[in-house]
Amino acid sequence: MPKLKTRSAAKKRFKFTATGKLKRSFAFKRHNLRKRSQSMKRKARGTTILKKSDFQIIRDYLPYSS
């Protein structure tokens, strides 16, 4: 059976934690930040854990990472 390819887009955007969950960063933080409210920019700092329903989709894109 041939090797599975990892989706490059997923490889750049997601990382697995030590417990096997997927970590992601927040969207809408690259440019045009003057439009965004201060509270939105504050909440979008750092990273967060992916929800279970999204995890089930993304884990297929990263076959050898988990």
Describe this protein's structure.
Helix content is 29%, strand content 15%. It is an alpha+beta fold and 66 residues long. It has a three-stranded antiparallel sheet. Strand 1 (14-16) and strand 2 form a beta hairpin.
Which terms would index this structure?
66 residues, alpha+beta, three-stranded antiparallel sheet, 3 helices
Q: How many strands appear in the DSSP assignment? A: 3
- Please give the radius of gyration in angstroms: 15 Å
Order of helix and strand elements from N to C terminus: HEEHEH
Proportion in helices: 25-40%
Q: Average pLDDT across residues?
A: 93
Strands across the major sheet, in which order?
A: 1-2-3
Structural shape? elongated
| Tally of alpha and pi helices | 3
Flag low-confidence runs.
Answer: none
Structural class: alpha+beta
Short description:
The protein is α+β, with helices and mostly antiparallel strands and 66 residues long. Helices cover 29% and strands 15% of the residues. It has a three-stranded antiparallel β-sheet with strand order 1-2-3.
List the helices and strands and how they pair.
Blueprint: H1 8-13, E1 14-16, E2 22-25, H2 38-43, E3 47-49, H3 52-58
